[in-house]
Amino acid sequence: MTENSPLVCVCVPAYNSEATIAESLSSILDQTYANLIVMMVDNASTDATVKIAEKIAEKDRRLRIIRNPVNLGGEGNFTCCINLAGGEYTAIYHADDVYDPEIIEREVRFLEEHKEAGAVFCAARDIDETGRVIAARKLPSEGGIAKGGVFDFQQVFRTALKMGNFMVFPSAMVRTRVYKDEIKAWDPEHFSTSADLDVWLRIAERHPLGFINIPLMKYRVSASSYSYNFARLKTTRHAIFLVLDFYLKKYSGSFIGQSEMTDYRLLLLKDDINIAINLLIKGERACARRLLAPALKPENIRNSLRSRGQTRILAIGLAAWVLSLVPLGAQGRNFLARVRHNG
Questions:
Q1: Exposed, middle or buried: residue 286 (CB in 10 Å: 0-12, 13-18, 19+)?
Q2: Claim to verify: residue 12 and residue 65 sit in the same structural domain
Q3: Where are the alpha helices (H) located in the chain, listed in sequence order?
Q4: Do residue 217 and residue 262 come from a single domain?
């Protein structure tokens, strides 16, 4: 990219991120793409997050620090980032992730070459608290997403009905005018912690979404984080279904057919199995068994055998159903919890 390259605004919402903020900000400021401004939007942190960022800002004037007087909540702070955004493109990066040096350059190039795209995402790697790579967060082969390129709303939504939210939020680069003129705000009131998926689908309704199947960032999965533990403790339906149900109703009778609904029911079954395991850990065997009943239906068994991944999920569900028939005791539940934690 040349000196006349479009300005990129990187917003970094942060809250009590003293352990990771220096590494994250450094990975952003050390990009091969130079024409950018970085705004750390602190959500009323009570630790040393701001002091650490201020020291970095003393050395690099591209970094600006904005402090919310009160905590706006995660989604509220994302909306604040949209309000502050400028330049041609905006990325909302996370304060605990690490960004490969070329992510901004590659995503800008993609959006410059695909003027029809409203946003672009990339693949990622998962890292633990120490920065060790523990998994690959690949783009799905379903719908051809893994091949890269641009995809319309129907293609993206069909894939989400099968795979869930496969778009890595902190990898997204969005045209600033799309964020400011069309999206304007996250909607946690209706979509809770899955309001980001609603944002991506709202963009896709008007503009194709782009995908780069290269892992250009490291997504931190912390065993102490809220999102990590919530997935292992929750006993209610995942918030993603608030979004999927809304768009299923909105597009009912159009391109949603039997195949899409089969994929959606299997996604629901996967979530039910996850909840049932948590119920078993809590000793609520009867509730778990009721939730696992759909795993025994011939239709779900037949449809689950279509893919190796879904077959594995079904096998876990059937094993959980067997466990629900016998008292596990405290020792057995603790063992199941350890297996869940390490799985």
A1: exposed
A2: yes
A3: 21-29, 49-59, 74-84, 103-113, 153-163, 176-177, 188-191, 195-206, 226-233, 240-250, 258-281, 285-292, 298-304, 308-323, 329-342
A4: no
For residue 242, tell me if it sits in a domain. no
Please report whether residue 92 resides in a domain.
yes
Specify if 234 maps to a domain: no
| Pairwise CA distance, residues 162 & 158, whole Å | 7
Predicted TM-score (pTM) above 0.85 = yes
CATH of residue 184: 3.90.550.10
DSSP state of 224: T
Residues 299 and 161 in one domain: no
* Half-sphere CA count of 106, side-chain side, radius 13 A: 21
Looking at the structure, tell me whether residues 150 and 265 fall in a common domain.
no
| Residuewise pLDDT in 10s, the chain (343 residues) | 555 899 999 999 999 999 999 999 999 999 999 999 999 999 999 999 999 999 999 999 999 999 999 999 999 999 999 999 999 999 999 999 999 999 999 999 999 999 999 999 999 999 999 999 999 999 999 889 999 999 999 999 999 999 999 999 999 999 999 999 999 999 999 999 999 999 999 999 999 999 999 999 999 987 544 444 445 567 899 999 999 999 999 999 899 999 999 999 999 999 999 999 999 998 999 999 999 999 999 999 999 998 898 999 999 999 999 999 999 888 888 877 776 655 5
**How far is 188 from 68, CA to CA, in rounded Å?**
19
Beta-carbon contacts of residue 310 (< 8 Å; ≥ 6 apart): 266, 270, 303, 304
Please state, as a whole number, how many other Cβ atoms lie within 10 Å of the Cβ of residue 332.
Answer: 15
Residue numbers of the domain that contains 296: 257-342
| DSSP per-residue codes, 45-110 | -SSSHHHHHHHHHHH-TTEEEEE-SS---HHHHHHHHHHH--SSEEEE--TT-EE-TTHHHHHHHH
- CB atoms near residue 55 (< 10 Å): 11
CA-wise closest residue to 12 among 71, 64, 56, 47: 64
